[in-house]
Design a protein that fits this description.
By secondary structure, the chain is mainly alpha-helical. It has helices at residues 5-15, 21-40, 48-70, 80-102, 108-117, 127-135, 142-163, 170-179, 181-195, 201-212, 214-226, 238-262, 267-277, 284-292, 296-321. Helix content is 74%, strand content 0%.
């Protein structure tokens, strides 16, 4: 496919060499490997993944999300980039639900996890370095983060929260944003950003420090969870894993590309949207699955496979856009 040469001129100066994309993935791989070795060598005893997941879910992830959202530019909340990213995720998740209904019927919590894994991109720990090295500007992952933490996370966590209880009550629905620390922190951050307020240093500084531990902690937990786990083994939901993986790394970028062209967005935004939507599934999904005890193997396999497959996909897309 021949692409406008303006894309070449606008991007090459920022990205340098396509091989820079390896840097972000290398960092992630090292941290995941460290988590795997911690579990394999039993350096902290049994249940390392469980402890790390709980710390991330209740402490470090809420701190990180509040820090990111509360300091974000309000204009990013309502940008075309955020709209395309959100619609692309919604379409991809919807396609997974359809495939699940027609091909492999699963419970509501498992279907929710599969749909989320097929559309929730790793915009933090992989997205930030990839955006910096491949796109040339880390700001392009911020709209992705905002869409996911403000819209998709509350929906996914809400469905998981309510469906795993076996019954739905109005008061549970109303209390869900307060009871879930990730949703509560995200909502509080959005209020601060929209209000134009500045969080006192005595509050923001410790939250920033805690938030800095979130990404490595989630990656370590994911690596620890891989110990003793063989992906796509007999008896697991292979069809669901393969469908979600294909939707995540191929269909979602294609949808974003089509929408961006239809809206006549600038070349830089088209490239950024394709790359950010081609990012692998976020390790947060493994964290969510572990928290609710549903779809754990499914989430673990999808996160692992999309992480592996997205490397050549993103490198190939970068090469094509620079051709």
């Amino acid at each position: 496919m021949s692409l406008p040469r303006s894309w070449v001129g606008s991007m090459v100066g920022h990205t340098g060499n396509v091989l820079n994309a390896f840097t972000g993935f290398f960092i992630i791989g090292v941290i995941i490997t460290a988590g795997y070795l911690v579990a394999r060598l039993r350096l902290v005893g049994e249940g390392a993944a469980t402890v790390l997941n709980k710390m991330a879910f209740f402490v470090t992830m809420p701190a990180l999300l509040f820090t990111v959202v509360s300091t974000a530019e309000v204009s990013l909340f309502f940008s075309w980039f955020a709209l395309v990213a959100g619609v692309s995720a919604l379409v991809t998740a919807g396609l997974y639900v359809v495939a699940s209904r027609l091909w492999f019927r699963t419970s509501l919590p498992d279907t929710t996890m599969g749909a989320a894994c097929s559309s929730y991109v790793n915009s933090n720990n992989i997205g930030l370095p990839v955006a910096a090295y491949v796109i040339g500007n880390a700001q392009y992952v911020v709209p992705q983060i905002l869409v996911q933490v403000l819209v998709f996370s509350p929906v996914v966590l809400g469905v998981l929260d309510l469906s795993t209880k076996g019954r739905v009550r109005v008061r549970d629905v109303l209390a869900q944003p307060v009871r879930n620390p990730i949703v509560a922190a995200t909502g509080a951050g959005a209020v601060v950003a929209v209000g134009g307020w500045t969080v006192p240093t005595m509050v923001s500084a410790p939250l920033a420090e805690l938030g800095a531990a979130a990404v490595p902690m989630v990656l370590l937990a994911f690596g620890a969870a891989l110990h003793g786990h063989r992906p796509l083994k007999a008896g697991t939901q292979r069809s669901a894993v393969l469908v979600a993986t294909g939707l995540k790394v191929a269909v979602m970028p294609a949808v974003a590309f089509g929408l961006a062209l239809a809206l006549r967005l600038p070349d830089e935004l088209v490239f950024a949207l394709v790359i950010t939507t081609a990012l692998p599934t976020a390790q947060n999904m493994n964290n969510y699955a572990a928290r609710y005890g549903r779809g754990q193997v499914l989430a673990r396999d999808i996160v692992l496979l999309t992480t592996l497959v997205s490397v050549p996909v993103i490198l190939a897309l970068t090469a094509v856009f620079h051709h």
